[in-house]
Write a structure and sequence with these properties.
The protein is mainly α. Helices cover 58% and strands 0% of the residues.
Length: 106
Amino acid sequence: KYSRHPNYFGEASFWLGVALIGWADKGDANELAVDSSSSSSWLQAIIDSNWTGSMIMFVFFRISAHLTDLRMLKNRGDGYKRVMSEVSALVPMIPRSTEKEPTKQN
């Protein structure tokens, strides 16, 4: 296993892709810069951007994954605790091994 919640990762990646497509469709990169002399604040620029939905969805999926982990710990106990220490929660990564490999004895 590379991720405990691959569906959440896939969904978050989808929304990131939607934001990237929206950003690319805005046209000239100079238009994307926030003019510091304008009346709108940097916070308003972030709220108006395409990234807001992606950020909200990523936070939602991360919180949902955490709640799922808590439920799984309650239902499956120490076995799932070991899985949590070895497998990435959201982003697929090569599993970390917490146990030492047994040595061969001749």
